[in-house]
Amino acid sequence: MTVRLLTSLSALAAIALAGIHGVGAQQAPAPAAAAGTDFAAVPGGEFSMGDSFREGSPVELPVHKVSVGAFVIQKQEVTKAQWDEIAAWGHQHGYTDLAKCGGKAPDHPVQRVTWYGAVKWCNARSDKEGLTPCYCTDAAKTTVFRTGEKDIEQTWVRWDANGYRLPTEAEWERAARGGLTGKRFPWGDTISHSQANYKSNAFYAYDVSPTRGEHPTYDDGNKPDTSPVGSFAANAYGLHDMAGNVAEWCCDWLGNYPTEPQSDPHGPAAGSERVTRGGTWSYYAWTARCAARGSFAPDDSSHDIGFRLVRRQP
């Protein structure tokens, strides 16, 4: 299974011919201190969500104003070692079907995890640490999601709980942009292998890497070609790998953007595919843009997909 690109090759060709458009940047506001050394604080506020360059697919438009409350987000993607630790605990505490999942090494991102598996793991870590789990299997929010596959409705999520969950798509893009406005990537408008683990291709004018194809440091003939988490510089919010390495599950079902401003949106009420963000080691720079949207069915798994955690601001 590979990441589904939400555009056609002909559309990409048109994008490449358009070249690079410059959009001004704003200095990122200084984030507040976050609880826990592995999490960083993202300040609440308004940002422009979507593809301001108009070089993506229609589902990245229109650009619209979104305000989000303050939250904390994991600085790095969940590692294979972290997954294994919580899964082992979960097997003894009601989370009996947490899968083994994949991971190239303990300090690489976990992958081959379904959306169902990711949210159950969020609940398991919350339970283990004495926090209130976020994902429930009923509208009354009385039953914690621990086993099986359940299409969790957004109204079944305890959004005000202090436990762990996946970021909403709006939270993810807010965090990835690092306080910058109108930039393709978490650091600016161009990308190279010195900044991220992705598949470089001269087709994209903004891909300025002197090395092409998969990242030469991690392309060792033993798939997946992931990199240890935190191998590249963080963005202004202190977050690593918001572009490349593995795509990351979000809470939301995939749907079209609204035209009107939104406040703390949770995405459509229902759908058939859950959103992934961030690009991967095996796909091109186009998918690593802050605005790029991918999607998978929630029972899909791939060596391209992992996740990271958020919590509400303590």
Through-space gap between termini: 37 Å
Helix content: 10-25%
Tally of DSSP β-strands = 10
SSE succession: HEEEEHHHEEEEEE
Tell me the major beta sheet: 4 strands, mixed
Helix and strand content put the structural class at alpha+beta
User: Roughly what fraction of the amino acids lie in strands?
Assistant: 5-15%
Side-by-side strand order of the widest sheet: 8-7-5-9
C-alpha Rg (nearest Å): 18 Å
Q: What is the average of the pLDDT values?
A: 90
Low-confidence stretches: 1-34
Shape descriptor: globular
Total helices: the number is 4
Describe this structure in words.
This protein is α+β, with helices and mostly antiparallel strands and 314 residues long. 14% of the residues lie in helices and 12% in strands. The chain has helices at 9-18, 80-91, 115-128, 169-177; strands at 39-42, 45-49, 64-68, 71-74, 247-253, 262-263, 274-277, 294-296, 305-306, 310-312. The strands form three sheets. Strands 8-7-5-9 form a four-stranded mixed beta sheet.
